[in-house]
Amino acid sequence: QVQLEESGGGLVQPGGSLTLSCAASGSIFSINTMGWYRQASGNKRELVATITSGGSTNYADSVKGRFTISRDNAKNTVYLQMNSLKPEDTAVYSCRLRFGAIYQYDYWGQGTQVTVSS
Asked: Residue 62 in 3-state DSSP?
């Protein structure tokens, strides 16, 4: 069974920074995609950023230039460095892991709260 453990959320002032981490454990294919999604209160969940095991990245337009996604394949861990945070970045951030060709395995973390407020 695959598990995702997130950490790093919290309260930060506008303009501040936070780094989220998500460590995956269990039986994981080496070729996979990890990513971060967020859901603000009353809104649908949206993509923040994804990164493949080969290092290809994808970002939502709203975070380009401010957030950086990275990963350590040896540790099956993905990071999200968030800079210049804005109140509208406030949301529950969840980690996602996907792998598989014929059958797509899809796992989610429990989510971590990020609140940007003065």
From this structure: coil
Cβ neighbours of residue 49 under 8 Å, at least 6 residues apart? 35, 36, 57, 58, 59, 60, 63, 67, 69, 80
Residue matched to tokens 């996602």: 96
pLDDT digits over 52-104, tens only? 999 999 999 999 999 999 999 999 999 999 999 999 999 999 999 999 888 89
* 63-73 exposure pattern, b = at least 16 Cβ within 10 A, e = fewer: beeebbbebee
Residues 6+ away with beta carbon under 8 Å from 79: 19, 20, 21, 22, 69, 70, 71, 72
pLDDT above 70: percentage of residues in the chain: 100
- Which percentage of the chain shows pLDDT scores above 90? 91
